[in-house]
């Protein structure tokens, strides 16, 4: 089926962008909403992946900006993480052009399952700010390089790993972790998007329509997350981790 942008498809993409931006700004996982829609309207996989990165970048930028403006994120504090993530994502994006990501497909669902079990077993996970277990520069350097590489190389669950790491090792609340995660996601998204653009794998018309919805959804979702804190973020986070894990298990083992 060849992709053709009709008024009905454009409306569906716009609405999907709102939903994806809303979910992603709170707990990540917007691709679980956006990518199936892009594929369902007849877009070939590589174009769908590139277009998804385009529209998702607008959403993560909108959400990150809102968290920054509301005082939940300090860019100076996260500067080292941004640089490390940029470096890792560029390396991962280059590496994926030369080898397959298949070996990660069996490992990542198990790691995400661990995140899910730990979150469910910790009733107060991310409810309040706590004492960090790692120095901030060490955490951002290690996780920026590793998760940046992973996002550029493979991707699913990156936001969940960032949020969990920030809560566990930096003592962040879920709200603060959600804000800093969006900044890191935007950084690695831009790197991956640059690769897709260079390869010509982006449908700009569809991506920009979804991007308009993403901006609306991300702004709304991040505002609600800031207002309601972990009581809103945690159940959505758990749902997103569960769905991401289920999708990867289905793709890998079934």
From TrEMBL:
The chain crosses the membrane at residues 79-96, 102-122, 159-178, 190-212, 232-250. InterPro entries: TM_pro_TauE-like, TSUP. It is a multi-pass membrane protein. The keyword Membrane applies. It comes from the Bacteria. Keywords: Cell membrane, Membrane, Transmembrane, Transmembrane helix, Transport. GO terms for cellular component: plasma membrane. It is found in: Cell membrane. Its main location: membrane. The keyword Cell membrane applies. Belongs to the 4-toluene sulfonate uptake permease (TSUP) (TC 2.A.102) family. PANTHER family: MEMBRANE TRANSPORTER PROTEIN YFCA-RELATED (PTHR30269:SF0), TRANSMEMBRANE PROTEIN YFCA (PTHR30269). This is Probable membrane transporter protein. It comes from Desulfoluna spongiiphila.
